[in-house]
Design brief:
heterodimer, A: 222 residues, mainly alpha, 10 helices, 77% helix, globular, B: 115 residues, alpha+beta, five-stranded antiparallel β-sheet
């Protein structure tokens, strides 16, 4: 086929990254909102734990995930009883991407929520709007540029996840071999043509995404 | 008729407020940091007093004794913010409609409730 003999790494990477970003949005936004506006005991501790995956070596995250979803892992055993095994499937790759991308989404969203003047929310409160409506119609639109930055950063990070993915999902062509993993094994096997094409694709794609977001953010200034 | 007898602990002092307002205009006058905004926020429900009682006509808005603290949404208190707090991402029309939509929604809920 055109350029590449096998396009599966590209499709797999997109699929895992999209799933990871959706998971990160669903988990990250409510948590960021909570941490931006509330004070409670143990907050600093929780904050550090949430940010930890950003600074830990990928192999440590991979090992931790193996402990979690491996055959004898906490979650792995529960799932095995239900007849499900996600280790060495693309779901494990999506999980690894979610974990490493989460802090980026969380940090961006928290900063974005904090930057929204609390008076706008209070004004909506005195006008009788429910808390859910305030979040959807006031807080979210005003924090949107920062949240979008978080989405893009976490998508890029999820797309590029290598270390932890390799440990929990391995390199099964067509099943778990995402672009970064495929590049590593292409180079390892001396297949420079494939490696170069994949490198070019991922670089061009990442550049376009960042370029578009910067352009978009420039036009949206309140 | 608005009755308020509240205490609110602030960083450096405790604010003691006693208000009794009929159908009239009341002006709060004080230097910066005296607690003017805090009083208004307590009345609107945006801040919680440390103790006391706030009553509007016959409805208790806040009472530390009875453990009542109505949310600002249902207090029916209008509040103009110092910097207006107009929603910058909405049109003039959307800004005006924002409160009306909530009122309409609340009314519908009340109608359903009474059915």
């Amino acid at each position: 086929m055109f350029l590449l003999a096998d396009w599966s790494p590209v499709l797999l990477s997109l699929r895992t990254a999209v799933i990871a970003v959706i998971a990160v949005i669903i988990l990250g936004l409510p948590l960021a909102r909570l941490m931006a506006r509330r004070e409670f005991p143990g907050k600093d501790f929780l904050e550090s734990a949430i940010t930890l995956p950003m600074v830990l070596p990928p192999s440590v995250i991979g090992y931790g995930l193996l402990m979690l979803i491996g055959k004898n892992g906490l979650l792995g055993q529960t799932l095995a009883n239900l007849g499900i095994s996600i280790i060495f499937t693309w779901w494990a790759a999506a999980l690894a991407s979610t974990v490493v991308a989460f802090p980026l989404m969380y940090q961006s969203a928290k900063a974005a929520f904090k930057s929204v003047d609390v008076n706008y929310e209070n004004a909506a409160r005195t006008l009788g709007a429910s808390e859910v409506r305030i979040f959807l119609t006031v807080t979210l639109p005003l924090a949107w540029p920062g949240i979008l930055a978080g989405v893009v950063l976490s998508f890029a990070r999820a797309l590029g996840e290598f270390g932890a993915t390799l440990m929990v999902a391995g390199n099964i062509p067509g099943q778990t071999s995402t672009i970064p993993v495929a590049i590593f094994f292409a180079v390892d096997a001396g297949d420079n043509a494939t490696a170069q094409t994949l490198v070019a694709i991922v670089t061009a794609f990442s550049f376009l995404v960042i370029f578009w977001v910067n352009r978009w953010a420039k036009r949206q200034n309140y | 008729m608005l009755d308020a007898l509240i205490q609110k602990k602030l960083c450096h002092f405790t604010l003691n407020i006693k208000l009794q307002v009929k159908n009239e205009i009341l002006v709060l006058w004080g230097h910066s940091g005296a607690g003017k905004t805090t009083v208004l926020q307590c009345l609107a429900g945006l801040a919680k007093p440390s103790s006391g009682l706030i009553k509007l006509k016959d409805q208790v808005l806040y009472s530390s004794e009875e453990n009542i603290n109505l949310s600002p949404q249902i207090r029916n208190v209008g509040y103009l913010f110092q910097d207006y707090a107009l929603f910058p991402h909405m049109t003039v029309r959307q800004n005006v409609m924002y409160g009306l939509k909530a009122r309409r929604f609340l009314k519908q809920v009340l109608i359903l409730w009474n059915c």
